[in-house]
Structures are given as C-alpha cells and as structure tokens.
Amino acid sequence: MKRIVLLLLLPLVASCSMFKSRAYDPVEYDYAIQLATDATHAVHRCADANDEYYAYLQSLNHISFLLPEYIKNKADSKQALPSAVRVRQLTISFLQRHDRTAQYCTHKLSNIQAASRMLARSLGSAEGFDPCSDDVKARYALFEDSYKKKLISEDEFKELSGDLTDLSTINVSSCTLQHREQLEASVHAIQSAVGIITALPLP
Predict the structure, then answer these.
(1) If one looks up domain 25-199 in CATH, what number appears?
(2) How confident is the model at residue 177 (pLDDT cuts 50, 70, 90)?
(3) Cα separations in angstroms, 65 against 75, 145, 148, 174
(4) Which residues lie across from 16 on neighbouring strands?
C-alpha cells in the first residue's frame, strides 16, 4: 500500500511548470516530492511514534525550511514562494504541538502530504491533473467525525480545519475565477460549521 501511495506522488514532468512563466527546476520539484514522501512515511507511524517517525519529522522540518529559502533566491519566485511558505507553516504548526493525539497526527500529516503533492505537481506538471480540485469538504468531514468521536481535541479540530484555507489557496494563481469562488465558499462554510459545532457540548 505504501509503495502505491508513493507512486502516486510521481507525476509526469513536462518542460515547464504549472505556475505560469516558470521554467521547470528539478531541485525545487525534488524538494517538494521529498516533503510529500516524508509525510507519507510519518503518517503510518503516528500510533507508534518510534525512531523512524522522528527521523521523518526531522527531515520534514529540514526540507520544508530549505524549499522556500531556495525558491525565494530565484528571480521567478513570486508565484511559487507563497505555496512553499504555506507548506512550511503547516509543518511548523505540527512540530510545535507536543501534546498531539495520534488521530491529530494522522490528519495533520495528511494535510502536509496533500499540500506538498499539490506544490510538487505545480512546480513540475502532470497530465490530467487539476491543481484546482476541491477536496476540502471531504477533509473537513474527516476532522469533524474525529472531533465528535473525541479522538482529537477542540483545539486540534480548529487547527486542522483552519489548515484547509492553506490547502485551498496553494497554486490558486492557476485557478479560474469560478474555481476560486467555489473554494472560498467552501472554506467560509467550513469556518461557520466549526464555530457552531464547537459551541455545542459533545455527547
């Protein structure tokens, strides 16, 4: 199963990136792929939190710092840098939470994995890949279910739901106005739902 997941992370690379007017750079693409694979390996070790798990977290921290630093020193960094910074911010928020539940770990690393995959496919290219596809509602449904089952704390639930704003805006420059409006509407609906649900006592 892990091998299948990793294969899905390797889109076909074209001569230019999905970010308009940016040439394909194998270094930044490889950094993004490394982030996605590290998150994939780590997410399967959330319950055990063994030495391998912490090694992957260390790599996530290292690569998520290197990627935006590398991109921002390039002349064509304007489009790609905000997405790389968002991946870095997602990683930092995960690493700074020391009392994380196992289910939060799974959800959060899944968010980082998804963000890294979208970034990689934008820095490279993938035939038939829609960078504006909207899965934020499906992700939110998983977070809400975990919260209602008391598998994650209220604070973790709010943070995970807030991550969806970052996921919805990665590579937004390549989306049509209609896609942007749909994503914005989804995020606003989720934010409202979080406020309502957390205001009510859990059974």
Answers:
(1) 1.20.58
(2) low
(3) 19, 32, 34, 24
(4) 23
